[in-house]
Amino acid sequence: MDFQLLATCADGLTDLLAAEIKGIGGTDVRTGYRVVYFTASEEVTYAAHLRLRMAGRIFRILKDLPAGAPNIVFSKAKQIRFDKLFAADLPVAIAVISASGAGEDSGELPAHLVGSKLREAINDSFQFHQKVVPNQSSRDAKVSVRGFLHHRRLMVSLDTSLEGLHKRGVRVPGHPAPLKETLAAALLAVCGYDGTTAFYDPMCGSGTIAIEAAQIATGTAPLLLRPKGGFGFEHLLDFNEPLWEKLRATAKAARHDPTAKIFMSDIDPEYVENARQIAGYAGMGGFIRSEVKDFFKTAKPADAGTMIMNIPYGQRLADQDVTPEFLAALGDHLKQAYQGWRCGVLAPVSSPLKSIGLKPNRQAAFQNGLIPVKLLVFDIY
Ligand SMILES: C[S@@+](CC[C@H](N)C(=O)[O-])C[C@H]1O[C@@H](n2cnc3c(N)ncnc32)[C@H](O)[C@@H]1O
Fold first, then answer.
1. Which residue among 264, 299, 305, 316 sits deepest, i.e. has the most Cβ atoms within 10 Å of its Cβ?
2. What CATH number does the domain located at 181-220+255-379 have?
3. Chain centre distance of CA 216
């Protein structure tokens, strides 16, 4: 049986995520506002949870309803056989969010009102078909029913990821400004990194980009380390455990030693230690060479490769502004010391990027938390 799914993502990632979804076998792929819709078999659905690097969450779409009035929401939603999807005693969280884009004049019903109608409908569905009251306690919920309100319609879905998919299960605190793993994966995708050439992050912080690169270079599925029961679909009545275990076993067997070297460094020894620890938990410790060093005073670690740096900026790093002098020195160092490398520089859009003094071969805009950022890619000859 095929499922209709939607995967959410951050600004700037939709096209990259759509390509990733096609790559694992998703069909009817189309993009929306911070979202990619697709169709997938049961096997591709499970693979999506295990292998997509850029998806924030994945939802199984149950029904698309008219939502112009509260009683319509209730009467249409109660027709969904929730009792066939999850057990009544399992805690279920129910929430509705407005999915209208910024600046859209949606004219929707308030999301909390639609949410309360959806809650009533779920109750009704269980009471009518099974004469039981479902456990609508969001504490420790293993099932999450999520409604997306858009243009007076309500898309009712199940959050089959449970926790955000950027949570690879290995991060430990220690750096004030780590990138989200999903954004790190997007930076690597824009640079065309496929794991066959050397990779270097010279301002690695907690090592997010280098660890993601090492996973690509070793064929490691990003969510392989999420523990049993960590995905929402594992708590549904139709969970096909043998198929899921088969996919996990195949993904484990597909891991291999990298053919290219991965390097990371930072000027701050504590951050390098933090990055080493996380890389170790991710099973990538043995594949990444790490050092404490100043980017501006050191040479490239190999003749050629891909380098990505997320330069220091923003509120979480002591309100550092990116100065023209810093960027000019960075551009000079790239020109002088990085021949043969493709270099990606992630910086706030608001910084004086022209001071780098190099013409980017490619660029892409993203959102890093609340900060609009740009990745500039330079091929240095
Ligand atoms: C925005 S953070 C990188 C965060 C990282 N991408 C992560 O996911 O954790 C920028 C890093 O650049 C490092 N840094 C600043 N100046 C540096 C220099 N001259 N050489 C090497 N690292 C430097 C800082 O210590 C900081 O960890």
1. 264
2. 3.40.50.150
3. 15
- Give the integer Cα–Cα distance in Å for 346 and 366: 9
* Residue of the CA atom closest to atom 5 of ligand 1: 205
CB 206 within 8 A of CB 278: yes
Check if 33 has its Cβ closer than 6 Å to any atom of ligand 1. Answer: no
Helices vs strands, H then E, count in the chain = 9, 14
User: CB under 8 Å to 9, separation ≥6 — which residues?
Assistant: 17, 34, 35, 36, 54, 55, 56, 182
For domain 3-159, the CATH class is alpha beta
Output the CA 292–ligand 1 centroid distance in Å: 11
**What does the pLDDT look like over 218-262, one tens digit per residue?**
999 999 999 999 999 999 999 999 999 999 999 999 999 999 999
Residue with the smallest CA separation from ligand 1 atom 3 is 205
- 33 Cα–ligand 1 center, Å: 31
Q: Which token pair is 231?
A: 């995905």
* Dist. CA 205 → ligand 1 center (Å): 5
Nearest residue (by CA) to ligand 1, atom 4, is: 205
Residue type, 199: F
Indicate yes or no: pTM above 0.90: yes
Going from the Cα of 309 to the center of ligand 1, the distance in angstroms, rounded, reads 8
State which ligand 1 atom lies nearest to the alpha carbon of 314.
1
Helix (H, G, I), strand (E, B) or coil at 74: helix
205 lines ligand 1 (CB under 6 A): yes
Going from the Cα of 225 to the center of ligand 1, the distance in angstroms, rounded, reads: 26
Q: Spell out a b/e string for 171-193, using b for 16 or more CB atoms within 10 Å of the CB, else e.
A: beeebebbbbbbbbbbbbbbbeb
Q: What is the pLDDT of residues 179-214, one digit of tens each?
A: 999 999 999 999 999 999 999 999 999 999 999 999
